[in-house]
Amino acid sequence: MAALDSPLVRVERGSLQPKIIGLYHMLFKEGAKPPESDGFWVEFFILKANSSALSVILSEFSAEDLLQMQSIASTVFMRGVRFLSDSNPTIVANALDTLTILIREILAKQFTSSEVITVLVGLDRVDREFTEFVDALERIMRTGSIDLRIAALRATLSTVCCTYRTSLINFFIQRDLFAVLVQIIYDNATTSHTFEAFVLLGVLSNYDKLEAYNPYQTRLADFVDESVMQKIVVAVGKTCKEAREDYIAIADDAADGFSLESMISSYSGFAKKAKTALLQQDHQMAANNAFASLPPLSATILLATGNFVHANKYFSQVLIETKTIAQEETPFGSYISLSSYLLQHQHRSERHASYARIAMLVHRILVEDPITMQKLVSIECRSSMRLCRQRQPCLPYVKGERFLVEGILDALIGAVRHNMKKALDVPMYILAIGTIHRIISQLKRLRVRLKYYWSELWKSIFSFLRFVTGSSKHLRGIQGMPVLIDDTIRVLVLAFSAGESFLSGAADYDDLFYKLIETGELLSKLSAAYDMARENSSVGTLISISEHYNNLIKERSMFSSGHLSSELVSDIIKTGYDTLSISAQQGIDYWDRYRESDERVFLKRVGWAAVMDAQELLGRGLLPHIVPSNRIATNGNGRYAEKAV
User: Strands 322-324 and 638-643: what pairing?
Assistant: First the structure.
């Protein structure tokens, strides 16, 4: 090959610019024809690609402009695809960069699928050219050098995200890249890029999975390689932990008794009294704006995690059991931690709500399966968990390891407590209350008496019922409200009828009755507000229990002067058990198993949100770096992945 000219050329006023930028300008101008000389294209692709310059040049053209320049764009694409097979790794790397930017900028325009194909390659050549393109990407990811494999991985992820809403993505669905992506995760040389590979699997496996056959769903379901699963779990845990740090950076909630209000007050503590209110408002607004920008783009990994958990029960077990040595919080402990932050802040944006829901669906799936539920209450799988305490009232602060199911309950209580508003997110509440119902039902079946602050759960549920009763004029017309109220009442009825099988002791059971007595006529008002028939309904059972104890209290009051003390009420509760009859309701602990088809609309929405976030991560160069694990040891206390030093 003849020696090439200098990669720098002189421009106006004697300054220098990369020669490749001049070639970009020469190519992409109106009326230009694509060069036919092979020498030009060799020079074009051997010069280091300037992604930012090419992106700026292409972004200045309108969709109509690019349609007129179709011959230029398609020639660059087809020449670039040919050079992906070149023996010179520099040329291959530059071709990957150029094709990635070309596809991204063209797909950013408001084109239809056919117009995209016309601009990129032409309708008559699309099958041949795009098949060759996908084959080349797969080959480079499988056999290229480490740098080229990663570059091809990122080019593939970018292209898949860009083409997600076009017919071109079908070339990636049909090619089935599962094996090569698993190889990238497995190989020690590339395992630090597990994040990109797993996110790509998540995007591909989510595409049209409820409308057509998706081979990636089958591959996920059949996968059994535990070592690869562990590497994925470590990557998920590290990503969740880093995402949580973005919330903590806004408001550090580590200290017991923390509140966002106290943080704001501390900022303005040295201000003069006249300025204090204004400073608090400024800090509140700044904090709200910062929270609204979360979760970080790396939350896109939650989609892939949800897909894998639903498709593969064995992965669900590995997710729960994997532990990283020299780290108290397990990967799944970090997942629960992030979900608690997502759920308390989910009202801030639709994107926030989407990621919170996908995290909560994973909790539901794990709770519903008897095997994974047993692991959630297993001593061997316990973990420390930093749970969100950024909103008042906070749950009790707990140090040290806890059962994983306790962390899930904490996250769900946070969701119930901190999202009450007139524009109620009914689907979110149905999912949260339904998951709580499933947890209690499974604890009952497993005969696990969980030492937990159950009082906080009952307090949250009764507070929610008080809210929906007081806001009935605004809420009763919202679709799903009857289901939500009935599900909430069923949780309480299950607790009253089966409390002895899952509550840690008599004191917890007494407290449940005490909470009901405290509500007074709340349930009757709720029943009237939502036209709930007392007969043959769960609310009727609760009203009967309440009336039973209220009658006992009235009888005792006749022999006592003044108000009864809390000690006397507690004594009445204990003695009232003998005369209390709770009618057994058939199926009170029954629930329907999760079906993806019920979440069709949501999965499409969160799928697109994850695609957009992955695309922006690539564009801004913010991909997280996952420290690889280089030794896996297994013992009787769960699976351990030793962190590399």
Answer: parallel
Q: What is the pLDDT of residue 392?
A: 87
Sign, CA dihedral 234-235-240-245, equals positive
Tell how far CA 384 is from the center of its chain: 20
Q: List the one residue out of 186, 181, 183, 189 whose CA is nearest residue 216.
A: 181
Q: What sign has the CA pseudo-torsion 288, 626, 360, 337?
A: negative
Contact 408/365 with Cβ under 8 angstroms? no
Report angle CA 21, 25, 28 to the nearest 5 degrees: 130
Q: What is the DSSP string of 264-315?
A: HHHHTTTS-HHHHHHHHHHHHHHHHHHHHTPSPGGGGHHHHHHHHHHH-HHH
**Rounded Cα–Cα distance for residues 418 and 347 (Å):** 9
Instruction: State phi, psi for 10 to the nearest 5 degrees.
Output: -85, 135
Non-local (6+) Cβ contacts of 372 within 8 A are: 313, 316, 317, 320, 366
Structure tokens at 246: 């973005």
Instruction: Give helix then strand counts, H and E, for the chain.
Output: 31, 5
Cβ neighbours of 279 (radius 10 Å):
17
Q: Which residue has the tokens 């090569």?
A: 180
For residue 638, what are the β-bridge partners? 635
Q: What is the pLDDT of residue 337?
A: 97
Name the nearest CA neighbour of 519 among 560, 568, 469.
469
pLDDT in tens, 591-627: 999 999 999 999 999 999 999 999 999 988 777 766 6
List own/partner pairs for 254-259 with CB under 8 A and 24 or more apart. Answer: 254/386, 256/397, 257/394, 257/397, 258/389, 258/390, 258/394, 259/389, 259/390, 259/391, 259/392, 259/394
Amino acid (one-letter) located at 518 = E
- Is residue 167 pLDDT above 80, yes or no? yes
466, 528, 541, 611 from 517: Cα distances, Å: 14, 19, 14, 50
> Cα 119 from chain centroid?
35
Rounded CA separation 457/295 (Å): 26
Sheet hosting strand 322-324, strand order edge to edge: 322-324, 638-643, 629-635
pLDDT at 532: 80
Per-residue pLDDT band for 1 (boundaries 50, 70, 90) equals very low
Cis peptide before 215 (omega within 30 of 0): no
**In one letter, which amino acid is 384?**
S
Q: Which of 162, 85, 78 is nearest to 119 (CA)?
A: 78
Tokens of 43: 């020079």
* Structure-token pair, residue 33: 């024809």
Length of the chain (residues): 645
Give the Cα separation of 348 and 351 in Å (integer).
Answer: 8
Locate 425 and state its tokens. 């997110």
Category of 5 on φ-ψ map: left (φ > 0), alpha (ψ -120 to 50) or beta:
beta
